UniProtKB/TrEMBL annotation:
<keyword id="KW-0479">Metal-binding</keyword>
<dbReference type="GO" id="GO:0016491">
    <property type="term" value="F:oxidoreductase activity"/>
</dbReference>
<dbReference type="InterPro" id="IPR050316">
    <property type="entry name" value="Tyrosinase/Hemocyanin"/>
</dbReference>
<feature type="domain" description="Tyrosinase copper-binding">
    <location>
        <begin position="299"/>
        <end position="310"/>
    </location>
</feature>
<dbReference type="InterPro" id="IPR008922">
    <property type="entry name" value="Di-copper_centre_dom_sf"/>
</dbReference>
<keyword id="KW-0560">Oxidoreductase</keyword>
<dbReference type="Pfam" id="PF00264">
    <property type="entry name" value="Tyrosinase"/>
</dbReference>
<dbReference type="InterPro" id="IPR002227">
    <property type="entry name" value="Tyrosinase_Cu-bd"/>
</dbReference>
<dbReference type="GO" id="GO:0046872">
    <property type="term" value="F:metal ion binding"/>
</dbReference>
<protein>
    <recommendedName>
        <fullName>Tyrosinase copper-binding domain-containing protein</fullName>
    </recommendedName>
</protein>
Amino acid sequence: MAAPSKSPCKKLDSYGGIPMPADFKVLQDTYHKNLLGSLGAQGCTKDNISKRRSWDDLDDATRKDYIRAVHCLASKPALTDKSLAPGIVNRLDDFTYIHINQTNVIHESGYLLPWHRMFLWQLEEALRNECGCKGYLPYWDNARFSADQTKSRVWDGQAETSFGGNGAPVAHNGSATDTRRLLLPGFVKDIWLPMPYGTGGGCVATGPFANLTLSLGPVAKPVADPANKYGYRPNPRCLSRTFDPSYGGGAGLTWGNATAIVAAADIGAFRGGLEGLWHRQSHTFIGGDGADPFSPTNDPAFYLLHAQLDRFWAIWQGQDLAGRTYAIDGNRTFFGIPLDSAPTTPPSLATIEDPMQMGLGFRPLTKEGMPSTDLGRCYMYV
Ligand SMILES: [Cu+2]
């Protein structure tokens, strides 16, 4: 419910949804208390820590400035060597390229959390330093809108202050919940991902990204395309979505599940719940370009989706910073399945000393992607 207008600041733009339940708030409050208590007198402090907020709690000027900065990155030339992928056009494509390139090692693996934390931070830095964004990376507060995700200002389609709405409906031979099978390239065996048709499928026709031109991807396809295995060739097209309400709420993206995930006792249970449920269902709700496991970064909402996952991780870490900041769980590849580039390499567990490939020659160690208030990063989720 919107706050009454007599309260002129803070809550004025808050857009409602399902309030945070007490058990989640206890976890978030503990994270805030422990994180702020851990900060030193220098570097990252209580006074200079940046605050990543729900998109639904930003004011319109901050929302417009963020979207302006995304368009600004889309208008700047790429820095990645185009011999790696001739379809790379702009600064957003730099991010999509490395995400495609690393997909088979940074999902369903030990690197999921640190790689994406580093990745989001690089995007936030690019928005701020290259395009003058005044705010910080927002998150898609999807538990709050599990009753109807389209009630969130992320998706409500209001020009300039949302990420637009659903894609235009496309005719197909099935219901919205029927699935197609998409082939994930790059493994020693074929891996098929079921993907619902959803309720759209075509171009996003409203909001600030209606005229966005994508180039890289898609990568996951109904049939293999050996000539363009990773979607690196130029493929100019609109941004597509196909909302699937059966994934946006109901038994899925609810406060109850959010609380259960963040309350997990160990990193294995935490990553399992986060990746198997929250991550998968968030992407599947959006559908279209945002649900391609390799190039979902083509949808600018990707970064808000992953900020919510990073937020859950930060809250989980924040229950016990000493014991949990560097906790890692998972293999070195997707479910430990060998890559077709190294078919005889047996599965092995990721360690925090392993290097990660972040693009443009940046290869930090995994442990460097784990704290949120060290190594140059200084942010918290509120
Ligand atoms: Cu990813």
